[in-house]
TrEMBL record:
Lineage: Bacteria, Bacillati, Actinomycetota, Actinomycetes, Micrococcales
CDD domains listed in its UniProt record: 2-Hacid_dh_7 (cd12166)
EC code(s) of this entry: 1.1.1.95
GO molecular function, one term: phosphoglycerate dehydrogenase activity
Keyword NAD: yes
Pfam families assigned to the protein according to its UniProt record, in alphabetical order: 2-Hacid_dh_C (PF02826)
Record key words, sorted: NAD, Oxidoreductase
Protein name: D-3-phosphoglycerate dehydrogenase
C-alpha cells in the first residue's frame, strides 16, 4: 500500500519521497482548492485562523504531523479517527533564544536606539540590566526550561519557574504553581510567558495578574497570544506602568490600527521565535523519520493524540 502524504513544499516532497510513499504538495495557506485525498497531512500552523478548517476537508486523512509544536489550533478540526503528532525537540532552542533576544533588547532599550539611528540622532541611553534581576518563567515545559537555562549565564538574582503543579525537578529546581502567582508576581522584574493556549491558560495573564506586576516590569510572551488579556495589557502600557515584548498576540496577525502597534514600551515581533534555518532542517529530518515510520506501520514519534478521536 502506498502512503499518500500532503506536504507544504517541494523540498519536503523531495525529502520524504521513496518506496511506499507518494508525496503531494499542498499548502494550507496558499492552496485554496480543496486538498486531494491523503493518508497523512504534514503542515505548518496556518497563518490565518480562517484556513484552519481546511484540515477537516481532507478525504481519507488518518494522521496529521505538525512542523511546529503548538497544536491547539488543529484539535477542533481533526477528522474522527485521526491521530496527531508534533515536532517536539526541533524548535525549543530557537524559541528560547528569541525570548532572550526580546528580554535583552527591551531591557537595554534597543528599539529606542534603533529609532535614534533612523533619525541620525546620537543620545546615549540609561537602561536596565538582566544581571541581578528576578525573572519569572511562566510555563516550564520544553520551551520554558530552555529559557531558564539560557538565563543563568546572565546571573539573575533569581529565576522563578511557574507551571501547573508544584514540584522539585530531578536537578533540584523548585517549580511553583499558579496559585502562588499573587505572592510571586510583585518580585518579578521580567515575566516570560511560555504557556500553550488551552482552556486553563486562556487570559491567565488578566488585569489582576498585570496589576500584581511591579512598576516598570517587563512582560514577554513567546507562548500564545490568547494567554494574555490584550485590552488589559494595552491599558497598562498606555499608562506607562509596564513594558512588553510580544512575539505572539491576540488577535494574530495584528490588524492595521490595533493599539498594540503603537503602545509605548512595547516591542513586537511577528510570531517568528521558532523561525530559524536550523529549525527547518531539524523539523525536515523529523518529518522524514515520521513518514518512514508511518509507511512501515510503526508507532509515530511525538504523538500528541494517540487514540483516534471519535
Ligand atoms: N512563538 C513561537 O514561535 C513558538 C511558540 N510556541 C508555544 O509555546 C508553547 C509551549 O511549548 P512547550 O514548552 O513545548 O510546551 P510543553 O507542553 O512542553 O510545556 C507547557 C508548560 O505549561 C505548563 N502549563 C500548562 N497549563 C498550565 C496552566 N494552566 N497553568 C500553569 N502552567 C501550565 C505545563 O505545566 C508545562 O510546564 C507551545 O504550545 C506553543 O504554543 C512554541 C514554539 C515556538
Ligand atoms: O511551534 C509553535 O507552536 C510555533 O508557534 C512556531 O511555529 P509556527 O509559527 O506555529 O509554525
Amino acid at each position: 500500500m502506498v502512503l499518500r502524504v500532503l506536504v507544504p513544499s517541494a523540498a519536503l516532497a523531495h525529502d520524504i519521497s521513496g518506496p511506499g510513499v507518494q508525496a503531494i504538495i499542498w499548502h494550507i495557506d496558499t492552496d485554496t482548492s480543496p486538498a486531494p485525498a491523503a493518508d497523512v497531512l504534514v503542515t505548518e500552523r496556518p497563518r490565518f485562523p480562517a484556513h484552519r478548517s481546511r484540515v477537516s476537508a481532507i478525504p481519507g486523512l488518518r494522521h496529521v504531523h505538525l512542523l511546529s509544536i503548538g497544536y491547539e489550533w488543529v484539535l477542533e478540526h481533526l477528522p474522527a479517527g485521526t491521530t496527531l503528532s508534533n515536532s517536539r525537540g526541533a524548535v525549543e532552542d530557537a524559541t528560547a533564544e528569541h525570548a532572550l533576544a526580546l528580554i535583552l533588547a527591551s531591557l537595554r532599550d534597543l528599539p529606542v536606539a534603533a529609532q535614534q539611528q533612523h533619525r541620525h540622532h546620537w543620545s546615549p541611553l540609561w537602561t536596565s540590566s538582566l544581571h541581578g534581576s528576578v525573572v519569572m518563567v511562566l510555563g516550564y515545559g520544553g520551551v520554558g526550561q530552555e529559557v531558564a537555562a539560557r538565563l543563568e549565564p546572565f546571573r539573575p538574582a533569581a529565576v522563578l519557574p511557574v507551571a501547573s503543579r508544584q514540584r522539585t525537578t530531578a536537578t533540584g529546581v523548585q517549580v511553583h504553581e499558579t496559585q502562588e502567582l499573587p505572592a510571586l508576581l510583585p518580585r518579578a522584574d521580567v515575566v516570560v510567558v511560555t504557556l500553550p493556549h488551552q482552556e486553563s491558560t486562556e487570559r491567565l495573564v488578566d488585569a489582576a495578574f498585570l496589576a500584581a506586576m511591579g512598576d516598570g516590569a517587563l512582560l514577554v510572551n513567546i507562548g500564545r497570544g490568547a494567554v494574555v488579556d490584550t485590552d488589559a495589557l494595552v491599558a497598562e502600557l498606555q499608562a506607562g506602568r509596564l513594558r512588553a515584548a510580544l512575539d505572539v498576540t491576540d488577535p494574530e496577525p495584528l490588524p492595521a490600527g490595533h493599539p498594540l502597534w503603537d503602545a509605548p514600551g512595547c516591542l513586537l515581533t511577528p510570531h517568528m521565535a521558532g523561525n530559524t534555518h536550523e529549525f527547518l532542517r531539524r523539523s525536515a529530518a523529523l518529518t522524514v523519520e515520521q513518514v518512514r515510520r508511518l509507511a512501515s506501520g510503526r508507532e509515530p514519534l511525538h504523538l500528541v493524540r494517540s487514540t483516534p478521536c471519535s
